[in-house]
Amino acid sequence: MTNHTDVSQTAPLIDVAPLSSALEKFAADRDWAQFHSPKNLVMALTGEVGELTEIFQWMTEAQSRAAGTNPDTAQAVKEELADVQLYLVRLASVLGVDLNEAVQHKLQKNAEKYPADKAKGSSKKYTEL
Amino acid sequence: MTNHTDVSQTAPLIDVAPLSSALEKFAADRDWAQFHSPKNLVMALTGEVGELTEIFQWMTEAQSRAAGTNPDTAQAVKEELADVQLYLVRLASVLGVDLNEAVQHKLQKNAEKYPADKAKGSSKKYTEL
Amino acid sequence: MTNHTDVSQTAPLIDVAPLSSALEKFAADRDWAQFHSPKNLVMALTGEVGELTEIFQWMTEAQSRAAGTNPDTAQAVKEELADVQLYLVRLASVLGVDLNEAVQHKLQKNAEKYPADKAKGSSKKYTEL
Amino acid sequence: MTNHTDVSQTAPLIDVAPLSSALEKFAADRDWAQFHSPKNLVMALTGEVGELTEIFQWMTEAQSRAAGTNPDTAQAVKEELADVQLYLVRLASVLGVDLNEAVQHKLQKNAEKYPADKAKGSSKKYTEL
Question: What is the DSSP string of C44-106?
Answer without folding.
Answer: HHHHHHHHHHHHHTTS-HHHHHTGGGSHHHHHHHHHHHHHHHHHHHHHHHHHT--HHHHHHHH
